[in-house]
User: What shape does this take?
Amino acid sequence: MTFCIAIKVEEGLVGIADTRVTSGVECITAKKVTVFEHDRHSLFLMTSGLRSARDKALTYFNEVLEEQDQSFDKLYKAVTAFGAQVRRVMAEDKEALAESGLNFNLFTLIGGQLENDLEHKLFLIYPQGNWVEVGKGTPYYTIGESSYGKSLLDRALTYQASMRTALKIGFLAFEATRRAATDVYYPIDIVLYKNNSFHMVQHHYQREDLSEIGDWWQERIVQSIEELPSHWLDQALSGLDRPSGGDSE
Assistant: This one.
């Protein structure tokens, strides 16, 4: 499976992706984040789903960029072009995949800013090639294993959060997913984009790089449970101390 999250806050964009790829009984490591950047064109792309479909769609998209990149002055135009390549791959491979018992399940996150965008943008592209743009109300998308970190994201993340805070929350969502899903694991790739900078910053982390943070969070969870207000428990547990009434006749 996969864990990829992209967050849009007022200050910029934060993306986090694991690198575990499962094929049958084998697990390999492969990047799920691709960055395209030159002049005032800056975007990142991350995917979940069949690796073969991802690689083929990305190859086609690279060709489109080589031929038409200068005509993409806004990010939605590049997103639409990638969606067209997803539909192209689906048309070519869906039938053969279905005969092998596989679904065409390529989901894609694209974030960034092109020269005529007034601000940074973030989009989710579905396997059918259509797309939606992130809004301020729920300023993130997760693809792959999306359920384990959702509670934390919905409780803590807002559009007004700083990129620093968004990165913390995104990492903790990954930690929740890593602990619950055996097919999501380190290394992780992080990509950061500050609004109007036209420059992506990338980082790569191994488990040992961030183990201290994960352990700290685990300890705080256990400690918070112990510190949870418990006056309401007195009534709930009061019956446990009552003596048995014995057998009735």
